[in-house]
Amino acid sequence: MATSALYTHGLALSNANLPRLPATVACPKYDRAILRPGIVHIGLGNFHRAHQAWYIHRLMQQGLAQDWAIIGASVREQDQVMRDRLLSQDHLTTLIRLSPEGTSAEVIGPMIDYLPIEDGNAALVRQLADPGIRIVSLTITEGGYFISMTEDGLDLAHPDIKHDIHHPEHPRTVFGAIVAALATRRTSGAGPFTVLSCDNLRGNGNIARQAVTTLAQATDPALANWIEEQCSFPNSMVDCIVPATGPIEIALAQGFGVDDAAPVTHENYRQWVIEDDFCVGRPELEKVGAIITPNVHAYEAMKIRILNAGHQVLANVGELMSVETIAECVAHPVISQFFNKVEHEEIAPYVSPVPGMTPAQYINEVAQRFSNPEIRDTTRRVAFDGSSRHPEFILPIIRDALNGGGSIEGLALVEALWARMCAGVRDDGTTIKANDPDWQRLSEIAQKSEQRPTIWLEQPQVYGDLVEDPVFKPAFCRWLRMLWSEGSLASLQAYLDQAQNSK
Length: 503
Fold this sequence. Notes:
The chain is α/β, with parallel strands linked by helices. The protein has 21 helices and 14 strands.
C-alpha cells in the first residue's frame, strides 16, 4: 500500500510538530532557530518552494548556508492568502514528489518569514535595505517585468511604472521597491545586492537589469549609474514542473500524515543553471546540483523553446478539446502527433545543443516528463497569460523560422489555437473562464476573428510586423478559419495530413 494511503488526517505542520511527523516524511535536520536571512524572494508561490527553496534546504541539510535563509515577499494583494497559510505553519512546506514509480514527501524549512503585503511596500523596502540581504530573487512571471512590446525595454507608460517614477518613496512594483531599497543602501553604505531572476525569460538577468536601471534613471541618474556599476543581475534557467495546489494535493499531504495548508507537488526532475555573477556572495549551490556556467543562454534557449513553447503547443488545443491535463494531451493520439511534429520539425532547428543533450534528446525527455500521469498539470494553468507567454515563447521561433526559410505551418496553427481559445468557448460548446490578465480585450478580438481572422494579428504589442508577413499571415488566417468552421481535431489532422502529403 502506498504511504499516502496510510493516513486520513494529518498532524498540523509546525516547528513544534516536526519531531512527531511520521518517519516516512523527511524533515529538516538543521536548527531553524539559528538561521539568518540572506535572501528575499519576491513572488513566493509553488514553483519557488519546489525549486529554489529546495536547493537552499538541501544545503542547510548539509550544515551549510545557515546565513542564506529566505524571507518571502509579494507586491500582489492576492498573495495574502498564501502568506496567511505559511505564517500559520511557521513557513514550513511539504513537498510531494510525484512519479509513476511512486510518491514521497519531505518538509523543507529554509523560509523564516513572509513580509506584510501593503500599499507602498514599506516593509519590503526596509527589508531589502537591510545589509544582511545579499540576494533578491524573483519569480514574478513573464508579465511582471513590464516589457514594452512596441519599444525595447521597460514600459514607462504603464500606470504602475509611472506611479513609481512620480512616487519613488511609495512604490507599487517589484522594481520600484528594489530601486527604493538600493537608494537607501547607497546612502547608508550598506552596499549593493544581487537581483536573481528565476522567471522564464531568455536573458532574464539582462531584462531585470534593464528594468531596474531604467526605472532608477527616470528618478535619479546617479543612482542608476551606481546600480549599473555595483549590482549584479545573473542570468539563470530554472526547470521543474510544479502543478497548482488544490484539495487533491492537500489530501495527498494528509495521506502522508501532514496537515499542510499549502503543500506543493512536483515532478522528479529539477534543473537550475546560473551565471556566477553575484556581487556580494552566494550559497554554494553547485554542491546540491545547480550548474554554474558562463553559458546560461544555450540552456535557457533549449528549455524555453522546447519545454515552455511545447506547453503552449499543447495547452490551448487541450482547452478547446476539453482535455484537462498536459499528461492527457500527450496521451491523446492526435494531439501527441501534433506536438511531436511541431517540436521536431519547427522548433528543434532553432535550438542549439548543450553539453550532454541535443535538441532531439531534450524533446524526448520533455515528452516523457509531460506524460507523467501523476502530475495533474492542467491545460488551464499552462494556458494562463498567453498574452505574455506567446510573445516570449512562440513568436521568436516563428521569426527565426521565417528568416531561415523554414516551415511555420504548425506554429501558425498554435497561434490560431490561442486566438480560438480566447474566444471563450470550447469545441463542445462549454465555456472557458477568463484565463489572462487581459482576457476581456482578448476575448472581444477573438470573437470578431471568426469573421475577420486578421483582427487577431492586429495587436502590435503582440505581433508587431508579423501582421503583414507574407508567409505567416495567410497560414494563420487559413488555420483560424478552419478552427472556426471544422474544429480543433479536424484542424490538427489537416496539419498532420498536410505534412505527410508534402513528403
